[in-house]
Amino acid sequence: MSSMPTGTSLTLRAALISLVMLLIGLGIWEGASQPPEATEPLSEYEMLMGGADQEARVPPPSEVFKLAFSEISDPFYDAGPNDKGIGIQLAYSLYRVLSGFFLAAAVALPIGFLVGMSPLMHRALNPFIQILKPISPLAWMPLALFIIKDSETSAIFVIFICSIWPMLINTAFGVANVRSDWINVARTHELSPLRTALTVILPAAAPTILTGMRISIGIAWLVIVAAEMLVGGTGIGYYVWNEWNNLDLTSVIFSIVMIGLVGMVLDLMLSGVSRLVQYQE
Amino acid sequence: MPGNNALAMDKTANVTGLGAVQLTLREVNMTTKSLGNPYDPNVSLKHDQSCLCPQCSQGGVPLNEKELEAKLSDMPSRPENNGTKSGGSPSIPNTPEDMLDRAVENAVVRAVFNGNEQNRRQFMSMMGGGAFAALLASIFPLDAAKAAMKEASGPLEKTKLNIGFVPITCATPIIMAHPLGFYQKYGLDVDVIKTAGWAVARDKSLAREYDASHMLTPMPLAMTLGAGSTAEPYIMPAVENINGQAIVLHVKHKDKRNPKDWKGFKFGVPFDYSMHNFLLRYYVAEHGIDPDKDIQIRVVPPPEMVANLRAGNLDGYLSPDPFNQRAVWEKVGFIHLLTKEIWEGHPCCAFATSQRFAMENPNTYGALLKAIVDATHYSSNPDNRKEISKAIAPKNYLNQPVPVIEQVLTGRYADGLGSVGNVPDRIDFDPFPWHSMAVWILTQMKRWGYVKGDLNYQKIAEEVYLASDAGKMMKELGYEPPAKTYENYTIMGKTFDYTKPEEYINSFAIKRG
Fold first, then answer.
1. How far apart are CA B60 and CA A192, in angstroms?
2. Chain B residues inside the 8 Å CB shell of A54
3. DSSP letters of B78-136?
4. I need a surface site. Which of A41, A90, A245, B233 has the fewest CB within 10 A?
5. Looking at chain B, which residue has its C-alpha nearest residue A237?
6. Is 60 exceeded by the pLDDT of residue B18?
């Protein structure tokens, strides 16, 4: 340990390097995407063509920052059903993701326990899991819309169906791999199966279960953007679609950054929870 | 029909004179149960639980499909064929107007007899219905009551409505009715909701999330026939726009203006059941190109079209505006031709709703249709087009640069080839849903194999395209509707005779099946 620098100075130096890389990247981007300058007054045809301004190019970061500032300074405005602030859009998406995610957890954890504890159920359910797991959540969308007849619930269903598998499989794996000595100890103490599950297996499998939940929330956040782009209405996915409709890359880049930030926060929250249940053998 | 229970909501309206006569609007709807002739002693106006009249005895039993069809074809919203009034039976009225009249008479007569059915029947048989009618008319302003009833059309069943639209200039009247207050004017509180595409508009309509929606003119026909979706009777009381589309090619194809050079091209259209698809197919086929073999036609959502054109993934597309003009604005495409050059005055988008919505909410439906017809006429006026461009450009509606929309709506536009075009009717707005337009669309659906088997072209056209509703609303709002609902068209020099749809299909060299 002595040859390694201390924790804080390592973090600090890494942050410094990140910052320098970010600035260099933004600088190159800014320099490479300046709009061409208009020289002469434009003819009517050129005006109708949008002048030189509309030459296809990626907007420079300064434009994105400007937009980000104006959007974030008023995140909760509501100008009708199709134009809401970024905060409202993110709240809609988060609401859908979290409802679908917790529904999935409520179903996946008990089934995962069952599959992990009983080799019989494992064999019986495995074919279903294997077939359903690889289906793209968006492939469910038309069917969900048709059967549920409500786009809001359909979106939540799609989140549910995509977050369920990592949780289920990880729970089953964690439960099945609890060290047999511990279960044997529980048996010698003549604990009931329920108590064994709750006091021995659950704590032992908790880190694996949390890992599954962390994967799930990541997938759910990936999927909600695509689902909302497909169905429209509200949410961050709709926001991207609406700006794409206008081929407005500045707003698209801004929303990509927002999606990344919120996804990171969600992941940090779950990694915080999983640190709580971590244990040293 | 599952809707019957919802119809039983008691909505009351006051009729002037003779105190407050309670008139249940349930009777005004298509349940013809209580619309018996009140002057006839042999007709019962009372239908309680023990009632054994044919309508009541059937009441609780779900109708089978045949009966349902028979009932549907009896509905008041069904358009009348040119001049020929369907059925002449006096016992039960069959137009909405007559039904309203009868409902008013009914309510007044029952009020006179204090609801005592036995007294009324005795009285009628003693005195004779005709004489009583004359007596009643002398003491009660029955005609005025009827007129008042029709004018007010009773309270709106539903004022908070969701209407879907796809963000293109064709939706102008549906959108415009919002910022300009046309919906409000008719007592409606409407949310116009942006929809990601046509399939979503269809599914959300079928799921009843939308009360009415912007659609493509072939969609209500396809939905009614169950082509590409579950079959549900849809009605189209108003066309949104005529013309308003274009064929756009990638700038690298500037020298390939002859469609014969297009073999191997990849084209985009917004939806299978769209005028875009049918017009593109028609256009290339007239130039000897088979749209299924010589070129590829893909369904691409309009916003993706410009991006795909830029990426070289499409060689061209026939799409709604503003995406044609947007391609020029982005300097990736040029306008090869406006679709009005294929068929001058062709229909494009539509205002559609389910038959069920119109039946359950007749007054709301009427108010909504008035707002749309009004907004359509407003949009059609060239003087308003600049104002409209600004009003529909914001994020809440089209979310496009104003100059792009303005070029589409005013018809003064850059074509991407170096010249400025001046075509004021590049897009126009005309609500009248010609039955002959529906027949043409059906011929193309048949021609390209989207529907199979024998079609009763005119019957379907009249069931889905409600020309009589649109005509009535136009008249009420002071516009002149056409005197007929069918006409022949000349499309690329070829005559379409609406009376001979099958011959028309067979006259094409390139067709399926």
1. 56
2. 329-331
3. SPPPSS--S---SSS--SHHHHHHHHHHHHHHHHHTTT-HHHHHHHHHHH-HHHHHHHH
4. A41
5. B196
6. no
Do the strands B266-269 and B296-299 form a parallel or antiparallel pair, or are they unpaired? parallel
Distance CA A101, CA B45 (A): 57
Alpha-carbon distance of B215 to B199, in angstroms, equals: 10
B165 touches chain A (CB under 8 A): no
Give the residue with greater pLDDT, B108 vs B77: B108
pTM higher than the cut 0.90 = no
The per-residue pLDDT for B95 is 57
* Mean pLDDT, residues B339-346 taken together: 88
Kind and range of the H or E element at B491? Answer: strand B489-491
Question: B153-512 maps to which CATH number?
Answer: 3.40.190.10
Contacts of A150 in chain B (CB under 8 A): 207, 209
Residues of B with CB below 8 A from A149's CB? 206-209
B454, B455, B481, B495 from B501: Cα distances, Å: 11, 10, 25, 11
- Residues with Cβ within 8 Å of residue B333, at least 6 apart in sequence: B248, B249, B250, B251, B306, B309, B316, B324, B327, B416
Q: How far is A57 from chain B (nearest CA, A)?
A: 10
- Residue A260's φ and ψ, nearest 5 degrees, are -60, -45
Can you read off the two tokens belonging to residue B94? Answer: 């069959």
> All domains of chain A, ordered by start, with CATH?
60-277 (1.10.3720.10)
Q: What is the pLDDT of residues B207-249, one digit of tens each?
A: 888 888 898 888 888 888 777 666 777 788 888 888 889 999 9
Task: Sketch the domain layout of chain B as residue ranges.
Answer: 97-148, 153-512
